[in-house]
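B., you asked whether I could sanity-check this one before it goes into the benchmark set. Here's the sequence:
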Amino acid sequence: RPASPARAELLAESARIHWFRGDYERAERDLASASELVPAHGSNELRASLLTFQGVVAMSDGDLDEARRLTGAAIEIAPIGSFSRFRALSNRGTFEWSEGDMEAWERVHAAAVEEAERAGARPNLRWLEWFTTSTALTFGRWDEVLRRAEEQIALGPHYMLDGILYFKAYVLAARDQLAAARACRDEALALTEKIPDAQSRIPGLLDAAWASFVIGEEELASRLVARVYPLAAAIRHRVPGVDAKNTTLVIRAGRAQDW
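And here's what the prediction gave me:
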């Protein structure tokens, strides 16, 4: 096919899709082809999008410094109000969140929220809300967690809704509202079971296991953790949701040697 801006954009999107499907060879081939076309046929928005995706690849290989460099370059050239700028900012926030640098995360996260609001990108705002709610849970702001969770639940279906429901289940269980927590956990787990990609399914299963531990169902928690390892072993890319909390969970479930 002849080189063109449309061809470059098609290859870039194909690379992203195949990466998250686990077809890394095809993804890297398409990424290389798109990168070759960009100098002559790409806009700044496409250049920023490719840099951001290259940052994802670097993060997946464990090089967060390179991921930051690439994503920072994307932020510099991405047009204000563009999806590529939002994606670069939100990914940069994910890198900081993964390392536990909450001050850096808060700065970048606020910029990402502002960009999503400017663009009127409601689904993206809901994705960012997961991080806000997770942070509130981490720092023990339980009333805030419940308020934010109810707001998100009221907005209807979203691909991060299972995670929001798990946050609600944690708090309810910790407050000894076990029947309500169990119902919330079960609703969330039904959503997690429908998720096809490992990157989203793994954190969901771990969150379900944590909720089960707090509820007091340790046997179920252990079974859920056992389901995670084969998924994690089969993918190349890193899952940001596997943090210190979930590492502790793996140990409590008696699965440390597997990992």
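One thing to flag: The two ends are 45 Å apart (CA to CA). Otherwise nothing jumped out at me.
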